[in-house]
Amino acid sequence: MRNNRSRIGLLAGLIVASLPAAASSDIESCPWGEPGCLLQGTPYLSSGNDSRDNLLRLLSEGKPIALPVQQPPADLTRSRDYYFDWHPQWDLPPAVTAGDGKSGDPLAAVPALAPQIAQLQLDPEPFTAVAGQQDERADRQVSNNLYSVSAFYAALLAEPTLTTEQRHQLALARLGIAQGVEAETGAELASLAQSFPANSAARQFADYLAAAVQFYLGDYTAAAADFATLAAGEQPWLAETAGYMQIRTALNQSSANSSGEYGDFDPDKIDQAAVSDALARAQGYLQKWPAGQYATAVNNLLRRIYWYQHEPQPLAQRYEAVLTAAQQGPALTQLILEYDNKLGSQYLEKPRVTAIPDAPLVTFIESLRAIRPGSDGKPVLTQQALESQKPLFEQAGKGAWWHWLQHELWFAQEDYAAVTAAITPAKTLPASDILAFSEQVLYGKALMQQQQWPAARQHWLTLLSLSKEVEQQQYLQAQLAATLVFSNQADAVFAADSRVTNLRFRSQVLKTRASLATLRQQAEHGPNAEERTIALHTLLTRDLTEGHYADWLQDKKAVAGITPPVSGEDFADVNLSVFDWPGTGAESGYYCQPLAQIATALSQKPTDGHALNCLGEFFRTTGAKVDLWSDQPGNDVLNSATQRKDPPGQPDRQRYYQQIVADPKAEAEDKSYALYRAVMCYAPSGYNDCGGAEVDKRVRKGWFNQLKAEYGRSPWAEKLKYYW
Fold first, then answer.
1. Residue 27: strand pairing partners
2. Phi, psi dihedrals of residue 630, rounded to the nearest 5°
3. How many CA atoms lie within 13 A of 35 on its CB side?
4. Alpha-carbon span 451 to 533, nearest angstrom
5. Helix/strand/coil for 620
6. Alpha-carbon span 615 to 545, nearest angstrom
7. For 397-431, what is each residue's pLDDT tens digit?
8. Of all residues in the chain, what percent are helix, strand and coil, respectively (each to 5)?
9. Helices 399-412 + 434-449 axis angle, to 10
10. Residues of the chain with pLDDT under 70
11. Residues ≥6 apart with Cβ < 8 Å to 227
């Protein structure tokens, strides 16, 4: 059992200790929430998952929201591309199609605008140019778009006191602002305003445009004064819109000097007096216009206000409301991103472990995050803190959430017996119930941690029969495969009735834990050409690295049975054509025969120095080995189960060279070349790239001196100038 205990320690380290310190990492990965970027975590609620994944999975249930998860290939038994991690192809930009909004009428996104342009007798061409500039605008300019242009035009058309000419002039002025704001724009608008009668609606609309220009130019003091005058006026649209703009003006003014040392946003430099003014105006707007045209926008601004004020409780309550209410996938994704950047980032610095009134969802997600280990290696969330949260969840009808946190906390505290005692193995598994599925996964993992292998195996088999979701089934297969490997039953993965059918998981076991007999069986009788290729490549590589040269000659005949050959980038790590090496590409001046003849010579005389050197050349020039990395990401605990200190199929050329050097019967040509290559194993880094254990530098110096002293006239002695 010692080996099992060693491996189970790796299992615990993988699941509990090596948890991410932040929400997620987008380095060398798709930015979370971007089109084409899929969820990378496990399909159950876990403190080890990206918190955004947990939120999206939990909130999407019962809503018409399709999770951005990987779609299974046509045949999972022939593909290794279904796993729970980043996929390189996810970084490719999504293809642009005719129906994705990238072509056609750019004004179509604002349906009311085209008839407004016609009514106001405007040329539509400049609006098309403006539409192409929208994505380039940010910060205070972000609202200077065609939507706000259309809203302004609607107000012009609804104001009965305006003449046709006044509407046309004001509409042209608003178009000019949409095309770009410059310092002289304000003077032009002031001149336009003076051309209209005092106290007229036309003058007020022109004053509004002047105030908007001041806002876009960043002159918040002047903009605030003008918006205040308009908000007190009698024109309904201008009064409400100016009231809304007072909020934005105060909010922008509060952050005008909030740049950090490197130009980044520093919330500690916010002008709190201006934020308080923004809050008062927002509350005033909602009191006066509770169902106003900007009510949703004002409620959104309140989240920023509370963020600026460092008020986590009202901010959490607002996120609770909008996250729960969201019914569309893109909107929910953006809200989760905003939540994680603003509130979640605060909790990363100071984890929230106490209940947040009226916010059970936020309390749950942040408590799940706080189960990750702190600096002392223990969960940040304590049992006492969790107990204090229980009334909140019970009052909200979310007692099941609290119990899940308790189970996760026990697991993180390594109290696996408590987990298995508290969770009842399922007899049914509801569809789209991530909490129910999560409980069953945790139960199975707790069985594994207690090395209850038969019970764990049966549990995973039961869940595989109950679950109808592809993502869950593939994850359960990884757990089952790991259980079989941990319990020294790796060959059972390849039984005729095996429930582990995902080729990636089978490939990982073939490469690391399968016996030679199983490799030979799968190479000849595997379920498809892809698996036979993986098994045969692994078998042939191991035949060579383990010195089974006669077996290699026999096993290689199975290559002919895989027709057509499996090839392509997805199977580059198991390309069987590598074993057709013709001997070319070896070091110039050292002749090698094809690999088949090398294996024949070694099968007859395993100490043949020339054949051993040439076998080394095969491995050196082709890079042939059992590649353990191509299958490794995203297999969850199976990676830990298949990990080995000395994995099979890894070439050790240094051993060949040492054997030849030590052989008194070796030919001078072969021994001199072996000395040369042995020294070159460490060129130029000083680290061994030939396989096997590192050799002390004094030994390498001895090889160098022996080559120079005994074989000084050889081409290898003349070529070698240094030792490393």
1. none
2. -65, -30
3. 6
4. 33
5. helix
6. 10
7. 999 999 999 999 999 999 999 999 999 999 999 98
8. 60, 0, 40
9. 20
10. 1-29, 92-104, 134-138, 348-349
11. 211, 215, 242, 243, 245, 246, 249
